[in-house]
Amino acid sequence: MRITEAAKRLGMSPRMLRYREELGLLPPVRERGAHRRFGDEEIAAVAAGLELERRFDASPAELAFALRALAEPAVGQAVRDLGLRIGRLQAPRRALDFEKEKALRLLRGERR
C-alpha cells in the first residue's frame, strides 16, 4: 500500500510517517531505487515503534537515537561514558575488586 493508506491505518499523517522514515524508524526499502510500499511487516514495525514511544514517553527522535546508540558501538560507548561522568551509571565491578574487598574485610575481622 502507499504511504497515504499506511498513515491512515496507523492513525497519523503521511508527513509524520515520512519523518519517522528520515529518522530510520522504518524497515529499509526492499528494492533499491523503488518507491516505498507498506505491507503488514512495515505497518507492524511502525506500530511497535509507536507503542515504545507511548510506553516510555519518548519522542520519535529519542527512539531513533536510542537505536543508534545500540547499533553503533562508538555512539553507545559515548553515551555510557557520559552516564558514568554524570552519575547515572555505575562502573561495572570487576571480580578482582570484589575478591580484594572480601579479603580486606576478612583481614579486619568483619563478617558479611
From TrEMBL:
Name this protein carries in UniProt: HTH merR-type domain-containing protein
Coiled coil: none
Residue ranges of domain HTH merR-type in the record: 1-47
Family matches, as InterPro entries: DNA-bd_dom_put_sf, MerR-type_HTH_dom
Source organism superkingdom: Bacteria
Gene Ontology BP annotations: regulation of DNA-templated transcription
Gene Ontology MF: a single term: DNA binding
Annotated organism of origin: Sinosporangium siamense
SUPFAM superfamilies in alphabetical order: Putative DNA-binding domain
